[in-house]
Amino acid sequence: MSDNPHRYPPSAEKLKWSDPKSNSVGLPAIIASLQHMGKYMDVPSALKASLKMNQKDGFDCPGCAWPDPDDHRSPIGEYCENGIKALAEEATNAKVDEAFFKKYDIATLSSWPEFKLGKSGRITHPMHLAEGASHYTPISWEHAFKKIGTHLNKLDHPDEAIFYTSGRTSNEAAFLYGAFVRAYGTNNLPDCSNMCHECSGFGLTQTLGIGKGSVTLNDIHEAEIILVIGQNPGTNHPRMMTALEKCKENGGKIVAINPLKEAGLIKYTNPQRPLKMMSGGVAIADLYLQVQINGDVALLKAIILLLLKLEKEHGNIIDHEFIEEHTSGFEEFMNAISQEDLQKCIADSGVSEKLIRESVSLIAARPKMIICWAMGITQHENGVQNVREIVNLLLLRGAIGKPGAGPCPVRGHSNVQGDRTMGIWEKMPGTFLDKLGQAFDFEPPRKHGYATVPAIRAMYEGKAKVFIGMGGNFVSATPDTDYTATALRNCHLTVHVSTKLNRSHLVHGQEALILPTLGRSEIDLQQSGYQFVSVENSMGIVHNSKGVLAPKSPHLKSEPAIIAGIAKVTLRDKKDISIDWDLLTADYDRIRDKIEEVIPGFDAYNERVRLGSGFYLPNGVKERVFKTKTGKAIFTVNKRPEMTLSPGTFRLTTVRAHDQYNTTLYGLDDRYRGIKNGREVLLMNELDMSEINLWPGQEIDVTSVYEGVSRSVKSFKAVPYDIPRSCVAAYFPEANPLVPIHLINRETHTPVSKNIIVSIVKSA
Ligand code: SF4
Fold first, then answer.
1. What is the CATH number of domain 642-762?
2. Which of 66, 538, 658 to mutate to test the pocket of ligand 1 (most atoms within 8 A of CB)?
3. Cβ of 79 less than 6 Å from ligand 1
4. Helix (H) or strand (E) holding 253
5. What does the pLDDT look like over 65-122, one tens digit per residue?
């Protein structure tokens, strides 16, 4: 039987579709926001929280990692529709309490779709699922911690435990978690970053010396041209639209590069500007290049070849001074690019020569260039090569380390970048481990741990037996759903620190625990008084976040308190570890003092984090200081991926709907794409559909075959969409069962969720 947990009961399926929208946000976004608040929150809480979200004295939106303005913030609302949906999910009045778990057994809950599970509400008590039991039952915090400690201490080696982190975890919790896990004896600290921007971090570190972007919001405003590649900001980072609008108002040009036409990249109506609303919004993309799936390297090479041709003809295209002074590898790069065939690059990109030439004209005339990207670039076998080719284009133009220019990988989850800065990584450098050891007086393990995909394989193969998830919905976020479900079921114990019910609580180990935690919007009271936490956004700004709402249950604990509870019990008999966990969690300033001791860039942390808009972490690239192996920014040679498809096969990309945030489903619609009340759809080019005799709405089975193993999803519905020929798209996580666990980017273990070769047949 397939474990695909994302099936919907047939009665729920009344799928409708209409033409996709060509304008984003505006009045419909205001209405959707109000509807969500009204439906799930009481009015006083909704008002109180929405006025404090993303404000200098408030809490950070638990949604994406888009930065807030340094200076002026709108007092009526510094958030987007999806920020409000994230808030409404967290601050919902619905509760999953002891009575709920008494009423519903695991088998019943397992038959519920993800959406219904999420909407059940906030978990109010720690819960335990005993071996062979049919129901979760309440457990005291003390007993829960004891159970975890007993399981961890029973393992033959600490490397048999996996400690996963999702991107919502605060700096303080992440740092404490990393310290505990290493004091316990392993570096098994996989995180969600392993599945999203790992290729950005790897490619940027190799070429520029730091695994982060270098631009600020002001840079976006003053860029002369922005390329938005493999990213759908209208849904996944909606306030980025305001920054793009400003760029346009300042005369900037925007080139969108994406297989699907996305409303947010076409037009934006700023809901905070009534006059703009009345005039129908502002066009975003000056050019829209519908690249075929995985045609990005070919497209970038075609752009580079045409720029080099212009340089030959007229000069003034390549920034020779910058290249001479600040880069290495230029000669090898030029040798390799000169071997490329322009027409082959154009053909492989799937974009017309005319459009490519037009985009080259825009780029050539505008030296202040930013390139933004997201998962459409990174979740590929050649994800690192994609990122490095982006860097090549920027270096060629000298568009790095100056105002209005640079690389901008846009992170999806609110503190995913901060968690990595805090040491959530399976292979942190020795310098970090040395300092961590000094700060806490122990010797951290040096052996690298498992990233997410290797961690799944280790659980599957029985090499790892305990799984602890600090947030997240592991089985839904990860690839190859059936395989991952088996991996979790193989564990002796699975533990989830969660705010709400999700699929991973039901795909469990022999024993399971759910540890309910505070949400971002909630007040965190510890022994020394009210606490705040801190986070780092996509642009490297660290700032504070202080909840304002009363916790949904008196039994909730903060993430630092949960980590301390587990650590105290687990490490009790380790004589060489003398960390005072209570002292650290009584006052988070003490955790921040330790962070300051260990991590560069956090000097005077407690002081600076209290400044309203926080502080920028050091980023040498901004000053053209490149900490690479050559001491300069490095040009690279990147192979153009093979783009041939066998007859009857398609390239599948997974995408998020507008009513969705990662694995959290806010609803079953995708307003911008015109899809209503259904998620098991396959977006297809109309000509492809007629070629294989599919009518709109036809039920189809989709199959991927990798290394001889076949994976299928059944009874999806074919929906015609504006997408290049031979390319198809389906929603994450419904299409995750098709993503083979062994199909990864080799340098980073990133699953290939954006280029899966599939075949399609009519359902029987
Ligand atoms: S853009 Fe991102 S961080 Fe800002 S309110 Fe929307 S979801 Fe939250």
1. 2.40.40.20
2. 66
3. yes
4. strand 253-257
5. 899 888 888 877 888 899 999 999 999 999 999 999 999 999 999 999 999 999 999 9
